[in-house]
Design a protein that fits this description.
Elements: H1 41-63
């Protein structure tokens, strides 16, 4: 079971970027998400990390970074 606590999901945009701090992307246990992962907690963290990395690449492309 993943644990609750961390940054609320509504504080992020669709790219996993913190709305109040452009350029700061969050994933995994930094987020407030709770699910019966049943041994797949690492997979959830890896998938969230990949999604945040893709969001960061999109943001960099959009901002010319």
């Amino acid at each position: 079971m993943s644990t609750a606590g961390g940054v609320r999901l509504d504080a992020l945009d669709g790219r996993s970027m913190l709305r109040d701090h452009p350029g700061l992307f969050l994933a995994g246990e930094m987020l407030d998400w709770e699910a019966p992962t049943g041994g797949y907690l690492l997979q959830g963290a890896f998938a969230g990390g990949r999604a945040a990395a893709a969001g960061m690449c999109d943001w960099l492309r959009d901002t010319g970074g």
